[in-house]
Specification:
By secondary structure, the chain is of the alpha+beta class. It has 9 helices and 10 strands.
Length: 287
């Protein structure tokens, strides 16, 4: 860090820095193995000329990752159709790299991805924070979320196992991890949560992120994005799990006191809109 001039602190462990005429992102990891994983993924993708990642990612010490700063970049927004289409195309290309790279090798340090286990843990965390969340959301809506989640998880028993080839999954497909640079190039960043699993599970996670932006209209989204029709129809039932709502309510406790009231008010509106749409979404998943 000493050889860089810090221009801005982005997060507690991420800095926008400058050295001479060049600008960088410097990120410090608590776990050196994650830093190594991210570096190796970038190198492997560069070797096969994957067009949507940052090149020249380096490690300083064993837990500080340095990569070029993307100037004048714009984050994707999922309420724009073209951003939805482009982000999905990038994900599809990323998943296809499994045909050229054996991502199961130990050198990639990729943990296995288990959607059901991930959601079971998320629901348990929500239940543990029930008292705190119900202060804002109310007991009735909290109970409704828990019931939807429990019913969706029990439905996993009727879903046929996926049979596709496992591959690299990005693991954190929030809209701002997709960037468009000043030259119009689309770039996928932040592979910290990258894992190894079925591509359909990451497409389901993408749909969870996107559905609020299309008024939870599943049929319209499937017609808009033909790639999604690769997902087995019965696997669409996983969309019944209120993943976005549980995750966002867990985020409340990390928001600073100054921002918390505005954040909670917005989140309550988001939750009420989602819950009013859930019965139809539940039905559409069967159709």
């Amino acid at each position: 860090m000493n050889k860089f001039n810090v221009k801005k602190k982005i997060k507690s462990n991420v800095w926008h820095c400058q050295s001479g005429n060049e600008e960088f992102v410097v990120k410090k990891y608590d776990n050196p193995m994650v830093a190594k994983k991210v570096k190796v993924i970038h190198e492997s993708l560069a070797d096969i000329q994957f067009p949507h990642t940052i090149s020249k990612v380096t490690l300083e010490d064993e837990n500080i990752l340095i990569q070029p700063w993307i100037k004048n970049a714009r984050a994707f927004k999922y309420h724009y159709k073209h951003d939805r289409t482009n982000s999905l195309a990038i994900l599809y290309q990323l998943h296809q790299t499994g045909k050229k790279i054996d991502w199961s090798k130990d050198e990639y340090l990729l943990p296995p991805y288990d959607l059901r286990l991930k959601w079971q843990e998320r629901l348990q965390k929500f239940i543990l924070h029930y008292a705190q969340v119900s202060v804002y959301l109310g007991a009735d809506k909290c109970n409704q979320l828990i019931l939807y989640a429990q019913e969706a998880l029990s439905g996993f028993n009727q879903i046929e196992p996926l049979e596709s080839q496992k591959t690299l999954l990005h693991g954190d497909i929030v809209h701002h991890n997709f960037l468009k640079d000043a030259k119009g190039k689309n770039i996928l960043i932040d592979f910290d949560l990258a894992s190894y699993g079925y591509p359909e599970e990451e497409l389901i996670m993408w749909m969870h992120r996107v559905l609020p932006n299309v008024n939870y209209n599943l049929r319209a989204l499937l017609n808009e994005q033909p790639i999604l029709k690769r997902i087995p129809k019965n696997y669409l039932q996983t969309l019944r799990f209120p993943n976005e709502l549980l995750r966002e309510w867990m985020y409340v406790k990390t928001v600073t006191t100054e921002r918390q009231q505005a954040f909670v008010e917005e989140l309550i509106r988001f939750t009420e809109a989602a819950l009013s749409s859930w019965p139809k979404l539940w039905y559409d998943c069967d159709r």
